[in-house]
């Protein structure tokens, strides 16, 4: 029980606040620090052992098993139970290119990122999303069917480049129907694939059922695909159509043109945009009428702000609970417990943190829900939006609320006097330096070791296997939780920048955190997480903006510090620094931001020409027509992992041991 | 002297502030009101007389003389010296369509504006700007010339639609050279045109030298044009080239596509955008390197803000001057003047306003200069930018500074406490209601009558004619000063909205102002001002935004009023009102704003098809090549007004008398 609680506490970002409040500012942090360093070491040692246990293979090597189709042996050796640091060496040795090819552009936490982004666009294999636009708000006509409306419009105005289109059906019924069809199909057709050449599987095919280039499988697959298309077509007449469709073009350039140009004189009709990658499409949101989007966006913005401030209520409540006498009032049975002082102190130290922890764990799903309601059309867009929301939430509720510590709500009025903010921050931030150092140790180090140990995944896997006696589920490979990890890392960056002026002691702790993080995240991307889609490094602008914000905050605090220390010359020199930071940010926004949002005509035209010259264009067009299949999201890449163990195992895997 | 001063004072927006400060809030306004109503009536009567004097023809009928090429007679009749209201009837009778065709889309100060904007795009004659894009930041190559670089790039990536291009030369030397050439040319070639058919002159030809469809003139013109092109070409090798060019396309759609798509992977190279109309191009700014623009924009923003706040210094200084004893300290000679009290009171009342007036007259040129430095490529863009700046300036320095009256700088801290703003405004605005009513009378009514009288133009014309003995200058027809008039009208809208809650007495005064303004501006657009270019109603979003801001401010004040009156229910109901206003604004931004910025593919493709079917496309292409001529701005439409009086005079003019 004690251990379990402590694990929860090591993950709690507010535990130390409470510790500090109830037991004085120095006693508990050193205690917590000791515990946490101990747990860090323990977790990392545990990981180095547990990762070598075959039963945990799907927890720690999900991605590699999925991609490399490994047949694992189970040799019993003593080495399996000895802690080792081999994984650290491996994570260190992986090159940027390997990480890029495995985890996608967002995974490389790099200075020439914009060049890489361009190389990514031009160097990647033919991507169906480059040929496809998503058209929304198609006007409904009583005279002709939706498909005729679309065909007529695009043959009329984009006749030379229009290839085909695919209407999107209202999700729900159709999706259920297709899922059922897939299950039935899987029962009847057991496919045995001898070997699947990794190289023959372009990224076009990542999404499960859409097609795999392999001889024996091809037959069944095309057979199934035929059935699927028939079903889909027969169903088209019955099911409810959305006023949205994917429209395919003959060239990439034509698609980008159609996505950029205002189609009609009514800006709320025939709204076009480049389509997300097939596996990145968030199908349930495509039915949302385009005219609703701006309302949804405003509503979720409002809801997020309200949620951010409502979160202060449990924090205040819990801060009240930490007072010993109040605790006894609330829980009278505490009076009857023997060894009262120790128990009460224990409960007053840990009960609030457990309550807070429950609230804190609700944040990522809550923000993800807000982002879903917001109506993004892609999974990556949803994750990006949730990432921003969690980032704002974290910066507000961890950084600012702690800096303005004490009764938080009564301190809010500081923000209504902008002029006093620098001085107030300059006074408050160093006061909280001890807390932030402990925070780096607790949430930072511990969360990294917890991340590498995959606590939840491990327990879930253990329960599945030994309690419910289920087999390994190879489909349950998660994708990298950018929306929870990116805000964490950025928060530590912010803490580092802001505390470094008056409490430079925090820097070595942060350096250890970042170094450990570098190793852990590389290891996780390499082994654990799978990337189903490529969002094209669009997390980077968020990282950039937050870093600039951190820098500005640091400089504002510096201004306050020099102000309180009566150093007007130093204050004076800080102001140009602020201006230069803003100028730098503007410079970057003008010079690099556009390529994260747009594709360039030059690149696309040259890619089109190359494909035409090599004769690949016909194939690409053929593949395009089946690329977007309205099926449940890509945890269902069953074909790829449905091979019999006895025949599987490829060259790559044999050359390189998995551990 | 008295009259002259008073004229200056009637135009001074701050005169009454001082009046109120020095003599109490009630005495002076009624005095000023009387004077001003009197001057209004006088000015309007004067106008109705002066407009009938042949010597003032170019002051009051500049546009009509320019467009209709009128030959005026000089019959001496008594009627000329009798005040009449005929112009009011005429201004009232003009239809929207006439105003639209004469003054352009910004002149119709209308609810279905977006429909008209669309009709304007589709219904207008072939516009060279629709076929042209402006390319900036063309990379310099050591291997090939700039013209080859451009040709190669566009034939490579837009080969099917690229028509031609025109390099822009560094302004200054070339412009001077061309002006001189034009003068010499004018001396040698006196063109006599018998009659110029108005219908044969599409808007394509508005810009003086670029071409006029008329037989006898055509010969000389094309001769000149030939020389001009030769000169231009021979000069090309010598003069300094900018890394910018106009690129012409075969179709409108191709141009809009090329302007919308990111050209290369470097967003700071080959930057494209739809070109302004030929006469709208602001040539001196085209040489500015694209990479400088964002710095210029930031710098002018900063400069504008600094200027807005620096303006408080003369205001404070002048407010100090109005104190009698201070005035005697500064000007000791006042003690020696007989009838001291009257003179001092007169001077303390009027001297400050004259000083302020000098400062106020510096605002529009100053803002225009800032807007020029900002680097817009079109004259309309520059005017729009100046309009915004003057609008902010006026709202800040007239509305807010007066509301926060007293020692202005010491009141600034109100803005550092956002929560208190509603209550403070609710207290301050009604206090200033008397001032604002007088303000509507002085600046509003008087400025309209001064506008219709064209005080400056009249004096200038008089001096030219009777002192310097110069002939009428038919080229000096001004364009409508949107950048000074739009902010005025919007400010009165703001005052109306904000004062109407607690001082509804202002409404009838404002109604009279708006009605008078409606007549005056219609009259002026009809007779006085010429529109050289069409910015496509892009003033409207500014008008919309300011009106929404006024509404919001009104609602915030209402919130404060209900707050001070302890009416929480009413306050509660104001908040949804605020939210709905914001929602309405967002709705408009999404539904209507895009068409003010973009052209739709549908419209352009259909216009292209129509032109191709009727065979007009070849002609349009021919005309395109000479449409953009790098000459001094279009006050130089000399050919059009260079006709001999004895043969001029067209049917339209004969049917409709000019007065």
TrEMBL record, chains A, B:
What the entry lists under PANTHER family is as follows:
PROBABLE MEMBRANE PROTEIN DUF221-RELATED, TO DEHYDRATION PROTEIN, PUTATIVE, EXPRESSED-RELATED
* InterPro entries to which the protein is assigned, alphabetical: Csc1-like, CSC1/OSCA1-like_7TM, CSC1/OSCA1-like_cyt, CSC1/OSCA1-like_N
Gene Ontology cellular component annotations, sorted alphabetically: plasma membrane
Give start and end of each CSC1/OSCA1-like 7TM region domain.
Answer: 296-562
**Coiled-coil ranges per the record?**
none
Transmembrane intervals? 31-50, 298-321, 341-361, 390-409, 489-521, 542-563, 569-588
**What membrane topology is given?**
Multi-pass membrane protein
State the family it belongs to.
Belongs to the CSC1 (TC 1.A.17) family.
Question: What GO molecular functions are on record for this protein?
Answer: calcium-activated cation channel activity
Q: Which residues form the CSC1/OSCA1-like cytosolic domain?
A: 130-285
Q: Which residues form the CSC1/OSCA1-like N-terminal transmembrane domain?
A: 33-116
Which Pfam families does this UniProt record tie to the protein?
PHM7_cyt, RSN1_7TM, RSN1_TM
Q: What is this protein called?
A: CSC1/OSCA1-like 7TM region domain-containing protein
Q: Which UniProt keywords apply?
A: Ion channel, Ion transport, Membrane, Transmembrane, Transmembrane helix, Transport
Localization per Swiss-Prot or TrEMBL: Membrane
Species of the source: Musa balbisiana (Banana)
